[in-house]
Specification:
Layout (H helix, E strand, L loop, with lengths): L1 E5 L3 H11 L5 E5 L2 H10 L1 E5 L4 E5 L2 E3 L10 E5 L5 H10 L4 E5 L5 H10 L6 E7 L2 E4 L5 E4 L4 E5 L8 H8 L4 E4 L3 H21 L4 H5 L2 H20 L7 H8 L1 H11 L5 H4 L3 H14 L8 H13 L3
Parallel strand pairs: 1-2, 1-6, 2-5, 3-10, 6-7, 7-8, 11-12
Antiparallel strand pairs: 3-4, 8-11, 9-10
Amino acid sequence: MKILVYGAGVHGSFLAHTLMKVKGNDVTILARGKRYDELVSNGIEIRHYFQRKETKERINVVRTLDQNDRYELIFVTMQAGQFESVLPILASNVSTNIVLSGNNAKAEEMQNFILNNSRVPKKIAFGMQTSAGMRTDSGKVISIHGKGSSMYGELNNQKTLFPLIKKAFGENYKVKYQKEIDSWLKTHYVYITAMNAMQYIYDDDLKKLSKSKQSLLEMTQATKEGFSVLEELGHTITPTSQAVMINNKWINYYFNKIYYKLPINKAVKGSPKEIKELLVAFHTLKKDATVHTPAWDKIEKEFFHKYSA
């Protein structure tokens, strides 16, 4: 299968590595600038954090996706806020199967843009791999992942593209279908946004944050408010286990207290630009709801006080 991974950051690099292991896949990765040069010179270099091993693989690298470049499947791996810049490119390209992988607050808007501006009919899916990490100055990726899994779905309960996605990952990799993918994406970004924003408010002093009972409980309350907004707007909190956890503030309090003491959490957080994008998206979304969100609003205000640019 001829596959393009559009985006060569932490997630894109691990995704390409995963897809390359499947017999029959012909994988190309799109990168620009310094990252393009790194991949051409050194290939994809990954240090697998938990597995305590390193891999290095040569891969086809391109700088652009032209209109007539045809792939059976295109995975686009980016942070929230970066997707919109590539939507016109995806719409004009002749390839028909596109997967937008990553935090996404505007799935329906993005799908509509691609479909309304495309020359050919397209199938579009959304989701993400379960992994995190960071990239070193040399270009090597430190990837934090388990055995490997991912979750994908299509809007309006469709399942037309999922079989091809599953085939791309092969038999030895867990790929889960998420029927309510838009609700899942919104649940996920609401859940991580308050946590990540608070981390930046504390200037990454996670030891200090882990000791602040007030801030940890405030974070839980903000997420609970966010979930209430989603529910009022007709979204199901997915998975339901997150709603159960948030509704028990003390379970969530002790979970976060322990979490912020772990050394790997700095590699899991989103960038300030991504958190800003998610906060702005949710601020717009909650205008259609009547739920009061004082804890969320306080965290949002404090975050933007630090990151106003």
